[in-house]
Specification:
With 378 residues, the chain is α+β, with helices and mostly antiparallel strands. The chain contains 17 helices and 9 strands. The strands form 3 sheets. The protein has a 4-stranded antiparallel β-sheet with strand order 1-2-7-4, sandwiched between helices. A two-stranded parallel ribbon has the order 3-8. It has a two-stranded antiparallel ribbon with strand order 5-6. A hairpin with a 5-residue loop joins β5 and β6.
Length: 378
């Protein structure tokens, strides 16, 4: 069995993973904390996290793969280039979380996990080994399992932190019915956050009610990606120019000073700095065809055009420049009420004669209750 795990570690690195660990397939010891989080409704509109069948899988992994014995956890670094201050601080651009600058990580990691699973089966040809591959898709608490496998520790921002690598890495798992014993943990003991609270203090929306607890309903990543409806008005000014995700609580983490650029070229920006922070005017004028073409291979494609343009409206309002008024005025004729409503908010923040004229024109023809509420709530 020692030869097996040594071969597994070597194969994992050959197929392109940076970290690998193994843990017995038992429920996470933090499952009770997860249930308290659900009971507090901090998962927001992510109803799939609270479904009884998903909870049952987390309580007993045999619901996912009957006879499961082992979870193989892998990590793949995705940090690429530091963002120049002139780009990061430019309010006319919409910031994108660095994990989404390149190709969709699911498309990169899933084939590699399947290759690793096939290799594992080939090592025991006389055995009927079953496997199940996940990349951020299964009803398991993957960060907890990865921590138990020695890949890192949980930080106060709820991210998994590798002491010598930081937190900019993706996780993937192979659940298997093969028992792998005597796997050595990556480290005998791991550090902790100690008294540091930089991540908690850096969050502009106060999404951390306590260390190690994230209220997703206030998280910029949730607001720009998972939330399908209207972004709460009181949170919009604190979102600054983020239009897809947010990196703030990771950027300030001291452990990320050890982060090294990934060797995976697929994660590097595809359109130079426009993949990192595209001009807001480009995003505001996207139609469905333009969105599909621009983000065809990106994780951003999953939120579709409406949510991305909604986010760009909020960023444009925070920018406050009259340069955005023509694009926002055009959005007042969009068939999607949510875009008309968020464009209203942006125009209200910008102010000026042109913006007020556009809002007055809309007031005479708008019928959607939610949009009218935006018009009347200044």
């Amino acid at each position: 069995m020692g030869e097996l795990w040594q071969g597994l570690e070597e194969k994992a690195r050959l197929v392109g993973f940076d970290m690998v660990g193994v843990v017995t397939a038992v429920p996470s010891p933090n499952l009770h904390a997860y249930q308290r989080w659900i009971d507090a409704e901090m998962h927001g509109q992510m109803g799939y996290l609270a479904r009884p069948d998903r909870l049952a899988r987390r309580q007993d992994l045999n619901h996912i793969l009957p006879g499961v014995q082992t979870i193989i956890c892998v990590g793949l670094m995705y940090s690429t280039l530091p963002v120049p201050p002139t780009i990061a601080s430019d309010p006319s651009r919409g910031r994108i979380s660095n994990y989404a600058w390149g190709v969709d990580y699911h498309e990169v990691m899933t084939p590699r996990l399947e290759e690793l699973a096939a290799w594992l089966k080939a090592q025991q040809p006389a055995s009927d080994i079953a496997t199940k591959v996940y990349v951020d898709t299964g009803a398991i608490l993957e960060r907890d399992h990865a921590a138990a496998a020695g890949l890192g520790f949980t930080g106060k921002n709820t991210m998994l932190i590798a002491p010598r690598r930081g937190s900019f890495f993706f996780l993937g798992e192979i659940l298997t019915t093969l028992a792998i014993d005597n796997w050595p943990l990556a480290v005998d003991s791991v550090p902790s956050c100690g008294t540091c609270r930089r991540c908690l203090d850096a969050c502009p929306t106060n999404a951390f009610p306590a260390p190690y607890v994230l209220d997703a309903r206030r998280c910029i990543s949730y607001l720009t990606i998972e939330l399908k409806g209207w972004i709460p008005r009181e949170l919009r000014p604190f979102m600054h120019n983020w239009v897809y995700g947010c990196d703030l609580c990771q950027v300030v983490c001291p452990f990320n000073r050890f982060s090294q650029p990934t060797q995976e070229i697929a994660f590097y920006p595809q359109q130079e700095w426009d993949s990192v922070a595209p001009p807001l005017l480009d995003l505001l004028t996207l139609d469905n065809a333009g969105f599909a073409e621009r983000f065809a291979n990106s994780p951003i494609q999953r939120i579709k055009r409406t949510r991305l343009v909604r986010n760009a409206c909020v960023a444009a309002g925070n920018w406050g420049s009259e340069t955005a008024v023509p694009a926002l005025r055009h959005l007042l004729t969009d068939p999607e009420p949510i875009l008309r409503g968020h464009a209203v908010w942006a125009l209200q923040q910008i102010g000026g004669t042109a913006a007020q004229s556009a809002l007055a024109d809309l007031r005479g023809r708008e019928e959607a209750t939610a949009v009218l509420a935006e018009l009347n709530d200044q």
